Amino acid sequence: MEIECKDFQQDRFTQRFNEGDESLLKYYQDLSYDKESIDSVLGRPVHKHTEELAGIIQSEMSPYGLSRSQEDNIERLKKGQRVVIGGQQAGLFMSPAYIIHKIVTLLVLVAEIKEDHGYEAVPVFWIAGEDHDFEEVNHTHIYDSDHRRKRKISYKPNLTVPMSLGFYKYDKTEMKRVLDRITEGCGDSDFLNGKKDEVGRMIEENDYWTELFHALVHDTFKDEGLLIFNAHSKRARQLEIPMFERMIRSRGEIDAAFREGQAAFDSEADIGRMIETDTNVHLFTGSEYTRTLLTYEDGRFISDEAPADEGELIGRLGETPETFSNNVVTRPLMQEMLFNTLIFAGGGAEVKYWGELHKVFETLDVPMPIVLKRMEIIHEDMRIEKLKDEHGLAFSAEMSDDIERIKEALIESHTDMSFLNEVEEIGERLARDYAGLEEKEERGQYRQLLESNMKMHRKQLDYLKRRYQLTVRRSLRRQLNDLDEVSEKLMPGGVLQERVYHPWVFQGQPPTFPTLSYTTQLTVIKTL
Predict the structure, then answer these.
(1) Which segments does the entry list as coiled coil (predicted)?
(2) pLDDT above 90 for 445
(3) What is the mean pLDDT of residues 365-389?
(4) Per-position DSSP letters for 269-282, written without gaps between them
């Protein structure tokens, strides 16, 4: 196994952010991944509820079986040790692969902080169990080796889930069918066969969508000491009541700060607006069956329930806190009100929208953590490396376009253009000859017959050209399919494989990640 780090497609903002551009870092409280910033954050006071939060996490992880390293990290969390945190929606069987890579980023950072700064931070993965965007998490893709293309596999693709995913009880029979299709599509190996049996048991032992996701993440990373926080947890919601109440009472200040801060950041960063929302409350409410954004109009909070004034809404919060949740504006705020965070690691879009929220943190006097972009990782096996070398391909953001150009050039080099030109000339001669037949006035009555006959000849000549071009492509089938395989495996649809494929596509054996270092470059793991 080899590791290679490459400069990859990064927009101008990401380049400036990674380089520590001071004009951008001011929107992140001038924090970066250096000793000065780390020491500054470590010196902050600890939240008073830290021990209670650690107890909630401990009680909700215990049914999955805590490893020794997880127990140690829970004790560290109770004592106020700071966390390195990241999160994601509960994708189908931990898909796509970048969910795994987010968690790997957390573990890499924790290891580096211990080695470089002598501090034992705690890795925490935040499951966005309150999210309701089912269409984003109900499917995955595998690489179909028989047809050499990606194939989509969905769980109930026509199902609508209007409530938070934490409330959704999955169909165990259908979930097992989906598991069968994924494992069969990823290939036959002892690891995957064992994994299939293991996950099958998890499907039976759990009931809710986010519970199953939690179980999978727990099983994969328990030995690394990863702690898992389900944002949909009822006990966590109880702890969050005063935080939600503060957000409700400060709704006007939050909304104004968000709009002002977003405009300033987007102008400096030279990017389009990242967070699009019309709400002025930035919270959801609902029930076990729905989830609706709150808005505030004429002194009343409007949702799919009866309008409520501030006191009535806070009363509902006290009675059923599990039906309240954050939107994209207040979720980072809630994270920092809950956890003592050293580093937040997120995707490129998340880094940008944290910048847009800088004024919200400032207005509510909530310190920001160090914000870093997560690591991007792809896997490349020996076959793909060989095919790249064979066709003179270099991995880059333009690789999909490069492959199309190589395919066109290959087809062109094997096409007898003189043959196609002669066929074209035959068509032109026929057109002239038929035009001559139609010239005489007394033959007008045959015009329709002549035109019909000419169309038949044109159709046959077009068919001849198409069949010839198809024959050329068939003669190059191996080379063209090999090029498509490189594209589909590394850059399906023009995006990194990690954003599309299920992680088991790359794991015909137990998943092992070599020792990695945090980098903003693309990490290529080559399997030899």
Answers:
(1) 420-467
(2) no
(3) 95
(4) HT---S-----SS-
309 touches 240 (CB < 8 A): no
* Partners of residue 406 on adjacent β-strands: none
Given this model, what pLDDT does residue 433 score? Answer: 85
Q: Degrees (nearest 5) of the Cα angle 161, 167, 173? A: 70
**φ and ψ at 368, to 5 degrees?**
-85, 155
Average pLDDT taken over every residue of the chain: 93
Q: What's the one-letter identity of residue 293? A: L
Q: What is the pLDDT of residue 271?
A: 94
Report the C-alpha gap between 211 and 320 in whole angstroms: 20
**Would the CA dihedral through 457, 458, 459, 461 be positive or negative?**
positive
Name the helix (H) or strand (E) containing 345: strand 341-346
Position 64: which residue type? Y
Q: 523: which DSSP letter?
A: E
- Which class for 278: exposed (0-12), middle (13-18), buried (19 or more C-beta within 10 A)? exposed
Annotate 188-246 with DSSP letters as a single string.
--HHHHHHHHHHHHHHHH--BHHHHHHHHHHHHHGGGT-EEEETT-HHHHHHHHHHHHH
Q: How confident is the model at residue 501 (pLDDT cuts 50, 70, 90)?
A: very high
* pLDDT tens, position by position, 286-316: 877 788 899 999 999 998 788 999 999 999 9
Contact 354, 344 (CB under 8 A): yes
Mean pLDDT along residues 87-116: 96
Q: Which helix (H) or strand (E) holds 180?
A: helix 172-185
Q: Decide if pLDDT at 15 tops 60.
A: yes
Please, which residues bridge with residue 87 across strands? 126
The residue among 500, 435, 415, 509 whose CA lies nearest residue 194 is 509
DSSP character for 308?
A: B
CB proximity list for 130: less than 8 A, separation 6 or greater:
164, 165, 166, 231, 232, 284, 291, 325, 326
